[in-house]
Amino acid sequence: MIGKLNHVAIVVPDLAAATAKYRDTLGAEVSEPVDLPEHGVTTVFVMLPNTKIELLHPLGENSPIAKFLDKNTDGGIHHLCYEVEDILAARDKLVAEGVRILGDGEPKIGAHGKPVLFLHPKDFFGTLIEIEEC
Ligand code: CO
Fold it and tell me: Which of 28, 43, 94, 122 has its C-alpha lying 20 to 30 A from 105's C-alpha?
């Protein structure tokens, strides 16, 4: 069912420093910072040949990643995103398999303008999983 690894999201305490490290130390191609107010994050996309890394930093008062950064002051891996062809079919199969979908269970438009859902980390070995229809 799942296809490509679309991205790995990493929450960082200092977006400029993290961007510089990926660009200058690792020699990666990086985007300008993009504010996504509806998601409560500012993100920098690191383009790799086979996937992307998304550096995330909280934006605004009620950022969903603020608590994560409080607990992980150095930053850390926040979620993995797998591509699926049909998000509603994927959701229905996951629910039938006993997986908990976060929120109201309805896909939301994600950071790339495509429908996404998040799966409960306790159902995936402690890893928050995003699925994105691609
Ligand atoms: Co994501």
Answer: 43
Residue 115 vs residues 24, 27, 133: alpha-carbon distances, Å: 33, 31, 6
**Structural class in CATH, domain 5-133:** alpha beta
Q: Where are the domains of the chain?
A: 5-133
Distance of CA 38 to the CA centre of its chain: 14
Q: How confident is the model at residue 36 (pLDDT cuts 50, 70, 90)?
A: very high
Q: How many CB atoms lie within 10 A of CB 129?
A: 20
- Active-site annotation holds for 130: yes
Q: What is the mean pLDDT of residues 71-85?
A: 98
Q: What is the CA angle 67-124-61, rounded to 5?
A: 20
pTM comes to 0.94
The mean-pLDDT minimum among 35-39, 81-85, 116-120 falls in 35-39
